[in-house]
Write a structure and sequence with these properties.
Length: 397
């Protein structure tokens, strides 16, 4: 059975997480993703977890975002490397890059220059702040965008320091914008024959991912503060938050206070059964409710809440989540080929299509693993390929 994007070729010049995770998503759906790396490999291959931890010699960060791709190494600062890149772009449907503004221009690989060799190219440029403007030259990185966009200031308890999300929340959302707008541009080209340039940036993605909060803050004339007791969203009332039990922690989401009172046989909670009371007295409610939940085990509490259709869940760590029966049923933890042999475990494809399902058909490549193969596909002879390797334009064999 074919994959939905099997006829699409993508020239991938992205680095770090945002861009590579986006192109990996497209590769999982069958696109031929040609990962163009500097000679020696992209810098994030050496980004260690913890002090200096890797997965059999490879960065776990690299492995998490670069499967379903082929790798070619090129020195784009050389005339020969630039020409090889243009030859690859000439046969591509999409080019994706996430350098700072101006880098592709200096390399001679701007949208206009690539269009000269491929008038039908979809050219996707992902930046930190945008391609122009007062802060366009600043480096864009996930933590910086969490901080600038209000996310960090909204997280945590009142009186405590601001708290960042412990995963690349803005990188991930921005990556999905790359995927989304790439698919929109491909669909538009299919209908009309018209190619175009797509621009995505981390700052806009950071604001977009917090559309609820911005809509509240921009339209309601009051000051919203973080909760003292850990209500997990500063715009919501109790019981929305994390609660300690005798054995573990449990999350309780939005639910009417009378239903929660009945489920827990705790009638005092019903006194707060208005939106006004649940918000204005949220810290008082949280203290009373948590004193009650601490007397029960997590299993006892969840049994009562789930039976009453209260939105609740156990607070699991990664190891627990990986063993969740539903996660296993959904096939979301998978074994993928490791570039140095064997396999590594990672997350799978989070969506299904009944007729054209995605497939992880290859693991993350070694640096330049497919250089000769890719160059041959765009018309280079064996001797030309060997000369590029000898002169350092590509990875030596």
């Amino acid at each position: 059975m074919g994959q939905p994007l099997e006829s699409v070729r993508i020239a991938d010049l992205t680095t770090a997480h945002q861009g590579p995770w986006a192109t990996q998503k497209l590769g999982d759906m069958g696109a031929d993703v040609v990962k163009v790396e500097r000679v020696g490999g992209e810098w994030s291959r050496n980004l260690a977890a913890g002090a200096n931890d890797d997965v059999d010699g490879e960065s776990p960060f690299w492995l998490s975002a670069n499967r379903s791709k082929r790798s070619i190494t090129l020195d784009l600062k050389t005339d020969e490397g630039r020409q090889a890149m243009l030859d690859i772009a000439a046969g591509a449907d999409v080019l994706v890059e996430n350098f700072r503004p101006g880098v592709m221009d200096r390399l001679g690989l701007s949208y206009e220059e690539v269009r000269e060799v491929n008038p039908e190219i979809i050219y996707v440029s992902a930046t930190g702040f945008g391609s122009d403007g007062p802060e366009a030259e600043r480096p864009g990185q996930d933590l910086l965008m969490q901080s600038l966009s209000g996310l960090v200031a909204s997280t945590g308890r009142k009186g405590d320091p601001p708290l960042a999300a412990p995963f690349p929340a803005i990188d991930n959302h921005s990556a999905m914008q790359i995927v989304y707008y790439t698919m929109v541009a491909l669909y538009h080209r299919e209908r009309t024959g018209e190619p175009q340039k797509v621009e995505v940036n981390l700052l806009d993605s950071a604001l977009d991912s917090q559309c609820q909060g911005f809509t509240v803050e921009l339209n309601i004339d009051r000051e919203f503060e973080r909760s003292e007791e850990g209500i997990a969203q500063k715009y919501l009332g109790a019981p929305y938050g994390i609660y300690e039990t005798r054995t573990d922690y449990v999350a309780i989401s939005m639910t009417p206070m009378d239903r929660l009172a009945e489920a827990l046989e705790f009638p005092e909670l019903a006194e707060y059964d208005t939106q006004e009371a649940a918000y204005e007295q949220r810290d008082e409610i949280k203290r009373k409710l948590e004193a009650h939940t601490r007397e029960r085990t997590a299993d006892e509490l969840l049994e009562a809440l789930i039976e009453a259709d209260v939105w609740a869940a156990r607070v699991d760590d990664f190891a627990d989540a990986a063993e969740n029966p539903q996660v296993e049923h959904n096939g979301m933890i998978v074994d993928v080929d490791h570039p140095n042999g064997g396999t590594f475990r990672t997350t799978g494809i989070p969506g299904t299509l009944s007729e054209t399902p995605g497939e992880i058909d290859r693991g993350a490549p070694r640096p330049g693993e497919h250089t000769a193969e890719i160059l041959a596909e765009v018309g280079y002879s064996e001797s030309e390929i060997a000369e590029l390797a000898e002169t350092g334009v590509t990875e030596p064999e």
